[in-house]
């Protein structure tokens, strides 16, 4: 830790520091999922700008160099287990582990030396609007500008890739990345994720976009070929019938009702490193819910019952993922202004999590009992044998 802090201090003094990222949160009490820090110059002199990335917003605070170094040290001790310092000459990767050990890895520089120190804020985009597949998908026009009616979709694409980028350090360890997109639809996110993995992370990627509608499969394969995305293939299949193999990342956005459970099952059984789902509809649990003395006022009204069914379903899904060794988070994907389907479950395989915990099984049973639930589909698919 001291060596890493000294590296930051020395590069600040030499004006070589370009950016610092604090990632991989270890403190569940904090709501922001990463901090991005960069040097700026204000009227009162040089500062470091801290951008706190929350699921639905960014908050920026500026501190002098002395306070900044103290804060970074505190954050790494209490809140984050990994950091990257981007400098003009090298990148420094700092990692701390549950056993108390730490490691610093040096790599070649990846950021441009010409980064501006101006405080003017410009929204960075992971996926530029002029990408050829976005034009073919109708997101942007021939001159590379986002169409007005597709602005929400474009923001959704970039927000999704931004979230995936928070797991970059974990993905960098993989030589080849296998990806499955369950219920890919027209493939907006499939194309963007393949683009990010191959062109930004520079990873060999084998990507299957699974979709039941033949016209969308044909369209996806046509655009993939035209974009020279050799590793991206659209496959005609429903989620349940899909034979998952060598999956490192599984995504399923807006798979309806128990199709989300089918997708998560495929990810868990494939031992995927990362599972990202945005659930849609929660009909199965809602049909099963029963009112009792403890819950009658919570589910008395239809709209409240519907929302409670969503909360209950996704809570059980998160617990099932935890049971199988995933560090799980449930966040808002993007503002409801752009889409009403804005909840995202992210799950990263974590060796520090106890596998097959009886405490987790008890939590699931208690939730079901409270609301009179006989079964939840993902729990039925994966945990039935665990109780025998």
Structural class comes to: alpha/beta
User: N- to C-terminal separation?
Assistant: 47 Å
Give the overall shape, derived from the CA principal axes.
Answer: globular
Sequence of strands across the biggest β-sheet: 4-3-2-1-5-6-7
List the helices and strands and how they pair.
Layout: H1 2-13, E1 17-25, E2 34-42, E3 45-53, E4 58-63, H2 65-78, E5 80-87, E6 91-96, E7 102-107, H3 132-136, H4 151-165, H5 168-171, E8 176-182, H6 188-200, E9 204-211, H7 214-226, E10 232-236, E11 249-256, H8 259-269, E12 274-280, H9 283-288, H10 302-323, E13 326-332, E14 343-349, H11 358-371, H12 377-383
Annotation keywords:
388 residues, alpha/beta, Rossmann fold, 2 domains, 7-stranded antiparallel sheet, 7-stranded mixed sheet, 12 helices, 26% strand, globular
Question: How would you characterize this protein structure?
Answer:
By secondary structure, the chain is an alpha/beta fold. The chain has two domains: 2-107, no CATH class; 132-387, Vaccinia Virus protein VP39 (Rossmann fold), CATH 3.40.50. It is 35% helix and 26% strand. It contains twelve helices and 14 strands. The protein has helices at residues 2-13, 65-78, 132-136, 151-165, 168-171, 188-200, 214-226, 259-269, 283-288, 302-323, 358-371, 377-383, and strands at 17-25, 34-42, 45-53, 58-63, 80-87, 91-96, 102-107, 176-182, 204-211, 232-236, 249-256, 274-280, 326-332, 343-349. Strands 4-3-2-1-5-6-7 form a seven-stranded antiparallel beta sheet, with helices on one face. α4 (151-165) crosses α6 and α10 packs antiparallel against α11.
């Amino acid at each position: 830790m001291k060596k890493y802090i000294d590296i930051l201090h020395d590069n600040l003094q030499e004006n070589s520091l370009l950016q610092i990222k604090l990632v991989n949160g270890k403190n569940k009490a904090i709501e922001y999922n990463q901090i991005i820090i960069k040097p700026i110059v204000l009227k009162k002199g040089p500062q470091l700008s801290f951008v706190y990335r929350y699921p639905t917003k960014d908050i920026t605070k500026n501190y002098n160099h002395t306070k900044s170094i103290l804060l970074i040290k505190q954050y790494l001790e209490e809140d984050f287990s990994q950091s990257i310092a981007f400098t003009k000459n090298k990148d420094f990767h700092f990692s701390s582990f549950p056993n108390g050990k730490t490691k610093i890895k040096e790599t070649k520089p990846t950021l441009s030396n010409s980064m501006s120190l101006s405080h003017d804020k410009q929204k960075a985009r992971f996926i530029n609007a002029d990408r050829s597949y976005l034009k073919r998908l109708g997101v942007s026009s021939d001159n590379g500008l986002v169409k007005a009616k597709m602005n929400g979709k474009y923001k959704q694409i970039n927000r999704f890739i931004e979230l995936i980028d928070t797991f970059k350090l974990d993905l960098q360890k993989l030589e080849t990345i296998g990806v499955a997109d369950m219920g890919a639809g027209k493939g907006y996110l499939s194309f963007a994720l393949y683009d990010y993995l191959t062109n930004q992370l520079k990873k060999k990627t084998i990507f299957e976009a699974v979709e039941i509608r033949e016209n969308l499969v044909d369209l996806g394969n046509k655009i993939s070929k035209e974009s020279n995305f050799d590793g991206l293939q659209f496959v005609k299949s429903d989620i349940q019938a899909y034979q998952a193999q060598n999956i490192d990342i599984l995504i399923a956005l807006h798979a309806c009702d128990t199709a989300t459970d089918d997708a998560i099952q495929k990810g868990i059984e494939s031992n995927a490193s990362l599972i990202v789902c945005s659930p849609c509809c929660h009909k199965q649990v809602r049909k099963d819910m029963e009112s009792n003395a403890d819950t009658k006022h919570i589910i008395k009204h239809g709209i409240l019952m519907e929302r409670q069914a969503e909360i209950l379903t996704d809570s059980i899904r998160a617990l099932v993922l935890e049971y199988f060794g995933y560090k799980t988070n449930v966040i808002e994907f993007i503002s409801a202004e752009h889409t009403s389907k804005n909840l995202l479950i992210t799950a990263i395989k974590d060796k520090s999590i106890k596998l097959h915990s009886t405490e987790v099984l008890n939590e699931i049973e208690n939730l079901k009992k409270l609301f009179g639930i006989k079964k939840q589909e993902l729990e039925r698919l994966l945990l039935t044998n665990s109780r025998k």
